[in-house]
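Subject: mismatched residue count in predicted assembly?

I count 283 residues in my input, but I want to confirm that the predicted structure covers every chain. Input:
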Amino acid sequence: MNNIMNGTLNGGWSFVLAAYLITILALTLYTVQLVARHRKGTRDER
Amino acid sequence: MKQSIRGLVGGLFVPALLLLAAGTYYGLVIAPPEAHMGETQRIMYIHVPTAWGAMLALTWAAVCAGIFLFSGSFKWDSRLEAAIEVSVLLCFLLSVQGAIWAKPTWGVWWDWDPRLTTVAVLLAAFLGISALRHFVDEPVRRATWSAVATIVGYIDVPIVYFSVRWWNSLHQQQSNLSSVSKDFLLPLMLNGFGMLFFIAFLMSVRARVAARRLREEMAPPPEETNGESILATEALA
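Triage response: the counts match. Full output below for your records.
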């Protein structure tokens, strides 16, 4: 709490980068598997 | 139904990537740190657009569920399946981002705060609906049950939104355009629109995957060509 009052939160950037990296990783993995599923389905249907 | 997703890539995915890249660059490099939270506040540029995306996806799920129950058209069931899955992903990311932001600001990863608890309930509810869709094989039952469950689960969405006003919450209340600095607003809006295009892309592709599975499930069985059915056909003739 004192850190917040002083405006000097410790490790700020590490938390920011963790949040961004987890989000980017999750969205990338979901998108890749989704496009792969779609392409496989299209191939199978043909 | 169109098989290629090239139109979706050009119309939704590429604009989403450009907007998210610009918003992320502005939010991490150009925007100044916030006076009290310092650099940690930059999580807002991804956390708030994720929350907007989750609310939009959940609202779209409720709309699809309502239209399916009203019309019985299975194209809305495919769209519902897509919206549920994307909603679960976004609610999960929202909770993870929130925990990462909570640790340096509140001193804990998790608290049974009204906002956090109602989002957890939402995640659990839609995870349950997603599981329900996997367990039920019969298409009509699956569509009807999940549509009803979606509308029931959606009741939690306004509770999530107003939880910070109704109860004493650690989570801050919603800001408005006049209370946010322009330096903070631009990356927020870039990522917000980027997320909108991105979830529209994901839900469109996922709905096509769901529609294809539905077509396979509801297709009539192939005609039998063994001796018995040929004999039966001759007997009828």
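The radius of gyration of chain A is 20 Å. Marking this ticket as 'not a bug'.
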